[in-house]
Amino acid sequence: EANGTYATADSISSGTQIKGQIYSSTDLDVFAIDATAAGSLEVSFDAPTNSSYTDYFAVYLYDSAGNILAGNSTGEDISFTAGVEAAGTYYAAVSSSTYHNSEEYGLTVTTSNTMGSAETEANDGFATADSISSGTQIKGQIYSATDLDVFAINATAAGGLEVSFDAPTNSYSDYFAVYVYDSEGNVLAGNNSGKDISFTAGI
User: In terms of Cα–Cα distance, which of 189, 134, 126 is closest to 157?
Assistant: First the structure.
């Protein structure tokens, strides 16, 4: 402390856990990690609480311009991955969420130079869509109610596109909308779901 800004952020090493504490509801802990190449950053947060209903912590990953790459509010252990398109310094920030808890937490950020394993932000339109390969899973996160993740795949001939969605939830409540579009924005297939789904769109 005080490590509440980019300028005063604590430097951390890939794969090494750092301990911290949100001592008040207005405290903000910021950590800086260097990525040596494009790839992905995996964030693992070890919460001192174990509540799936009460959010004590907000854990987010930012680029150097302050854009959110991924994140979540939580009251239990979480992990998430964000793709990064270039080498540089990235920032993980921890703060209070809806409620405050001052016990010690653990944070680990791990860098990877493997491209294509996680979405990159902002990928919220056809022009900025992340390219994906047939049969290869990509990880993503809807970090807010207004976030949109778009992925582009090239089909070499007429046929079908099979979509398999691995949801983090297993609920009859619809948390996710998963749809396939053509290049003109027409819906080819899709569904709303709170659990794993798969469907096929003819092309």
Answer: 134
Task: Tell me if the bond preceding 118 is cis, omega within 30° of 0.
Answer: no
Residues 6+ apart with CB under 8 A from 9: 3, 30, 31, 32, 91
Q: What is the pTM of this model?
A: 0.75
CA dihedral 8, 90, 78, 172 (to 10 degrees): 130
Identify which of 115, 5, 133 has the alpha carbon closest to the alpha carbon of residue 62: 5
47 phi/psi in degrees, rounded to 5: -80, 145
155-184 per-position pLDDT tens digit: 999 999 999 999 999 999 999 999 999 999
The answer to whether 14 and 89 are in contact (CB under 8 A) is no
Rounded CA separation 108/72 (Å): 15
Cross-strand partners of 72: 59
